[in-house]
From TrEMBL, chains A, B, C, D, E, F, G, H:
Keywords: Membrane, Transmembrane, Transmembrane helix. This is Nickel pincer cofactor biosynthesis protein LarB. It comes from Skermanella cutis. It comes from the Bacteria. The lineage of its organism: Bacteria, Pseudomonadati, Pseudomonadota, Alphaproteobacteria, Rhodospirillales. Residues 87-217 form the PurE domain. The keyword DNA repair does not apply. The keyword Membrane applies. InterPro entries: P2CMN_synthase_LarB, PurE_dom. PANTHER family: PHOSPHORIBOSYLAMINOIMIDAZOLE CARBOXYLASE-RELATED, SLL1489 PROTEIN. NCBIfam families: LarB. The chain crosses the membrane at residues 139-161.
């Protein structure tokens, strides 16, 4: 069990607790970490836990987890009471294909004590869809935007709102857009200032950064 | 002089006459080609003729050319009479930095017998700039759009007009946008259908394709 | 149902209706979109619907669709009457491996009300194959060309016809051609002017652009 | 003068006024924009104005500008009174070679009405240099960090502070680090959550985003 | 059997015996090599022998091998007596996901007659985890470090110890870190001198180089 | 002077004598090598000797060299008598911009004792130019072809002749063709078998390989 | 059947008959081509026919083919009589993992009427393995060399023999060598002149080029 | 002057003192650092100090430095007495073009108290050059090897000696070898174990690592 060392102090030090990226971990490793959290009485967030990997966990482990298959996230331990959730952060998804990443951000925020609405299917090919939701979006203090393909939504949004836009490029697309690099480069090279990028498909990171911003206000 | 063979038949065969890309040719080569055109009584378009290269040409060669330093284009021979220029094509430039490429397209179209207005500085960071020109743009049958950095203009435009959009990504930008690949990938991966891409900074190619489209109508 | 917002106005605004890229959507999402289209009495095109995904749809959903497995396209709703289909667009495929992409373009055009012949297996390794079909191709007003590997067909074709050539690089190939980038770069860097590129394997986009061109004539 | 259209409303709409990226603009274009700002009674920020380009401006233009050669920034018009500058943002530079980018951020913040200290030469090869400044850094509400080469500072910093870290990768380095991509990828792939990236060398963008964050608090 | 030629003299010539990379070899080829080693009375190391490939070997082949599924390594023949193992080399793993590569290095060293401890889960997001093990690490004469994602551990470690650091970037990560290139570039561009890199996931190569270093002391 | 060791035996061993790539050598190094060749009574080929570097050589060194500025090649020592030059190799250049590389091949062949005609300006945008020279080209036993941009000439040529085609991609082009990678990939991914590639702009290497082929006949 | 057009004249025109790349063709397409060849009484080579695809063919199709699973090649029709096979070409494989590609070259040569020995497992990590076969290799008129990983064999070989070396980089390797680009770049950038490259894993292309060379002697 | 913070403790902590990379520093910054070192009575190494930058330093600064233009290195302060220099490290340079990088390593080692011979011009195109020096090279405990182009020397060398080989890929080359990535990938993917890589052109880093190795013996 000495192969992992949880950084339980991280929340106190950085405002965001450690989370477990399950993508390259074995089932046995995930189970061991989960049990250590349980023994320590800690709550813990798991990301990129594929449905097949969740199903492969021991029943008592699955029972400890609140799992969501669309976002592939899970947590053990209790959440802050619903009424206590803070607002100020919102999430925009360019298309329905971006919803898994948007939901990863929303679930992470829920775990961190924030309540974040998701506004979906507002890609710029039909600008009116974004415009009719603009008033709602403008009320947020931090905007998380998820988009794949060419990611033009990031620039359009940043030119319309006065909140910072955290861009999460997604790996949705094919050809030159495969893997998400085209959308990432759009986020980084945006002609509208105020766009901040995280790694491709990193809904968790966007949520963590947004929480850090609000925590310091 | 046997080192080049002008394809004078190209206009008859493809609708667009051969043009001379000067970027990797010596001054002596450009002069020889120009003289051959003169002797053959042909008119000819030169692209990427840098001001320093133009200045290095023999005076009698310079005298034969109508040169524009912003677009680095030149031609010898007469144009179609101004009144005869056809319309239907228009050019949009996202920013002032994209004007050299937009002008290369406009000059090429002028040489090919078309009159094409340029609408400049309509980048999506300030959408209102594009919106107030939209009615004008919607009247065109082919839209040529030039943009660098992340190139989000291509997607926004293609979602708003019913004409085909020929996207010319420009090498304007730095970091991940240096060289123009980010804008090119936006054009290719656009979420709005109907975007057609040419090579980075290739205003000439966009104009040639637009002319081919109108020629076949 | 609030996670997607169909842009039903797109056809009126841009001449081409919205289509659904199924590649990164779940079966449930595709079914929901299909049902919304049915309820709205709208016809709708689906692309990249893999045979396995089609088979996974509910029977009543499959029954609503006209599905073609080679091109992985489907549509619901009625087509324009066959006699009403417009012509002027043709499709060239360099090899038999490029036929799925060529067929995606052909099916899209059929959905959009155009009739487009496909001329196949005319790769430049045996130029005579292209030459014997040249008269037929020269009659088209817009040429869609699909080719993988090195994509030399794009340049040869553009030097022989006076119609614009919409190049669809395909992901057919291996080594440096894997993924289609080599063919894409050939389309963009073609020495023959008048080549316009869409994303790799994007037969749909080529068809949409071709339709926009003819719609504006 | 019709070739550019200043987006004067941008500050009201997004909280950050438009700035002029001079890198790909001619001297004449910069002069024209400066004069338009003067006539409109607007203050305006210029970035990437190389010393040689600044020297090439007409004397009356130079006289209107507050120019800094290290950061290659300039502005016309008055600043907010010094005493009114808001704090809460700080800047960290990994090495002395990163100072031009750090200064671009600091000057942008000054123009936007913020006062931001710069903590320099705290690269992780000698961790004690960062540790002895840590208390000071922890007091900031937003940290802007500039680093080239491998950019390891971003991860170390984000693991030590509870403020969001805006990472500005710089093009300082050679070999695999040339151009700044290695540092950019470190920012995006950081094992410490809460790192937000802007484009390589984009000190302006980092400052604009930081200002948007504080403006919304 | 003439298709492979074992380089049995390699250990005498270079200090490290030949090993067999199984990744692109068929089961039949692995079996044939194993039998040749047995007949020659040689001991031999196999790397990248996937569990499925190991299971596919003939039972008498499996019986000859000491196999470890986490590191996907196997060997035939006897090891040096345990008490004779030399020390001086240690291995650090940034996270639990890097353990397979760390174990490949440890098993290779065991095969080569070295005993190497593994210190795991000391990623820089929680620096205290590294610091509390620092005294132990500083006692080693060669440090092998494995890390994925952005690989910042390499730089931090090299700034804290006086032994050479052999960096093994791992393919752990996603987006810009997928495949391990981001971590590799960090190793190569480290601001702390004394970092030496091997190929991504190449725990075997790191161990071989470390053994060569100690063999020459 | 002990810093270089001429491989005078190379011609006997491999059929092609060593040549000196001057691009990254100092003037002093080139002079020293030239003097060593003179003292040894050896003839020697120099490539990539830029005009400025040639001018910087000491007068007695320049006097020893037969220099050609277009191809940037030089040699010292005598050539085989003109009448003795062997034929069977020919060179094709797609455009006039490819002539420097074609000439490097031709000069290298001359130095190696071969006489090679150059057929220029036969790019595939005007196929008739190639067709009218085809009979001449078909008589060669080895074809060296130089082309930049998209390099489609390689495929067309290889489909028309029965000799092997050695493709020399050139760095002529811009955008996606900048640096020559697009043409290189066309050579490697050609749909016509029998294309063999050398490095970008490597006219010398193509000539050396062609000479080796004929030497072995 | 109209979707493919066999280029039966290719052998007469170029010396090498058309072959069928099966990788991206459906079983039905392969069957149709095979039947057309049978009806035309033509012999035909198939490459990249995976064992699973071969097994999926109709029994009467399989019966027509001479199939080899290691090289994934097949042919229909008769070969030249064994005694008539020409020699002069030989194949070198750096490691056993490169044998499938080496065998694709050998089988192609057999189909084309050549007999080519394969010398395997002569990688440069143990130079003596190459040296002891050198006399044999030096007798060949064309050397085909296959190597993955870093491909250093190409340079060493070309410095030792006077025949042209056709380098076939293979996709054997991982990390920076994954996909074969590292070996390809070694072939292209070799310090020993006379190396000619084909695409990664393209044993067929190397054999076709070698045959063209010998056919012209 | 507070913009840089020398890490004077680094030698005690890591065995190698801090050095100053001058490439992206201004003349004023270099002068200030030099003066601080002088005031502190410290000796200090400067790398990548171009001749023009050295000439631009104030005369009193130049007088403090021992400068070498080939390697672009300089130091202030005294060296260890010549007789005290330790041996055990040697340097190999594939070609004369690699000598600047080899010399950077040699000068760094001299500064660190080691004496390292340089064996030059032993590229693998003429293996005999390496073989005749092999006995000398085999006596070293650490081999530093510099090579550009395809870098095959790294693999050949590592297969012949029992010391670790620190590979320094150089940016010597063109086409696919431009910038040094091809040689770097050869070092990383070498088929001979025991190759350790540093960044392209990083002679300093290779020397620092070699010194760390010997310091720990």
């Amino acid at each position: 069990m000495s192969d992992f060392v949880m950084d339980w102090e991280r929340e106190g030090r950085t405002g965001v607790p450690e989370a477990v990226l399950c993508a390259s971990k074995s089932v046995a490793q995930v189970e061991a970490i989960l049990k250590e959290a349980a023994m320590a009485g800690r709550r813990l967030l798991f990301t990129r836990l594929e449905p097949a990997a969740f199903e492969a966990l021991a029943p008592e482990c699955r029972a400890m987890l609140d799992y969501d298959s669309l976002s592939r996230t899970a947590w053990c331990g209790s959440l802050p009471p619903a009424g206590a959730a803070r607002d100020g952060i919102g999430i925009v998804a360019a298309g329905t294909s971006d919803l898994p990443v948007a939901r990863e951000a929303a679930r992470t925020l829920e775990f961190l004590g924030f309540s974040a609405p998701v506004v979906a299917d507002v890609g710029v090919a039909g600008l009116w869809r974004l415009m009719r939701r603009l008033e709602e979006i403008r009320a947020w203090r931090v905007v998380i935007a998820t988009a794949g393909m060419e990611g033009a939504l990031f620039s359009v949004l940043a030119g319309l709102v006065d909140a910072p836009v955290i861009a999460v490029p997604t790996s949705v697309g094919y050809g030159v857009a495969a893997g998400g690099t085209a959308a990432l480069h759009t986020a980084l090279a945006s002609c509208a200032p105020g766009v901040l990028a995280v790694n491709i498909d990193n809904g968790f990171g966007a949520a963590a950064a947004a929480a850090k911003i609000l925590n310091k206000m």
